[in-house]
Amino acid sequence: MTVEGFGPGRKAALAAALAAFLAPGLAPDARAAEPGWYAGVNVPLMFIDDTDSTVAGVNRSQAGEIAYTADATTAYKTGVKLGGVLGYALGNGARLEGELFFARASVGELSYGNVSVPALGLTLPDALSVPVSGSADQLGAMVNLWYDFDVGESWTPYLGGGVGFIRVDQGEVKYDSNAVAQAVSDALAAAQGVPAAFRPRLPEGYVPQLSASDSAFAYQAGAGIGYALSDRATIRVGYRLQATGDLEFNGENATASVDSTTSLMVHFLELGVRYRF
Fold first, then answer.
1. Which of 92, 134, 166, 277 could form a disulfide with 173 if both were Cys (CB 3.0 to 4.6 A apart)?
2. Of all helices (H) and strands (E), which one includes residue 169?
3. Is 234 left (phi over 0), alpha (psi -120 to 50) or beta?
4. What is the mean pLDDT of residues 245-268?
């Protein structure tokens, strides 16, 4: 496309006029480089890596105690998170913020492998899949430090991370708590030549449910890009990786005890907005 009927001077004047018209939309946010408070929300999708847990249990009977160990793998469905932040822009590109969030994901699969009775040198040859339902919740508090890169546009890339604590609640997860103990009992009976039809069945609740919740140190790192909708409001999209330290769950009654240790590795695809005061 060409501009006809204009001399070089008029073309320059037209270009200057267009630049002046477009400048407010293309210029970087003048307030973004200034110190100030802001608040925001984010609603990301959550993807939890399959978690590997170590399980140690003890079956008690008149014959004595039988200890066993197992490795558990839990798979989760896509979850959601709702988070809110209150922060302060330091004026040099850095932002320091506090974050509170709630997240939930349904449990899809639960399986056990390497089920063994160390004292007897017995290991189950096959993995044990256990029906499971329900969801696990996370309640977290983090302190984050982000850095915005001034690229001279309305778009602002950022990266950073944070540390804090996460409380995981698995109280709504339903599964057969006897599954591993029953598999061990069946293997011991089979080793003694007891036919399948005559192997004892453990009564419901023989092995207690694991405790519902535990808290652990957590850390995260992420990056993304924000777009200035105005001199106060910014919308952003980003990715965040979050991990926890060891989470411990346990249960005990008169007939059995069980302990489980695990950790979480979580991926978030985020959509959020923040508003400067």
1. 134
2. strand 155-169
3. beta
4. 95
Q: Is the dihedral angle over the CA atoms 118, 119, 125, 130 positive or is it negative?
A: negative
User: For the chain, how big is the Rg over CA atoms in Å?
Assistant: 28
CA distance 274 to 277: 10
Distance CA 244, CA 259 (A): 18
- Does residue 76 surpass a pLDDT of 70? yes
For the chain, where are the alpha helices, taking DSSP H only?
8-26, 179-191
* Three-class DSSP category at 206: coil
Tokens (6 digits) for 195: 């036919």
33 — pLDDT class (breaks 50, 70, 90): low
In this predicted structure, what is the pLDDT of residue 192?
87
Q: Are 257 and 211 in contact (CB under 8 A)?
A: no
Tokens of 34: 């200034």
Question: For residue 106, how many other CB atoms are within 10 A of its CB?
Answer: 15
Tell which residue, 98, 101, 110, has the closest CA to residue 72: 110
How far apart CA 104 and CA 240 sit, in angstroms, is: 16
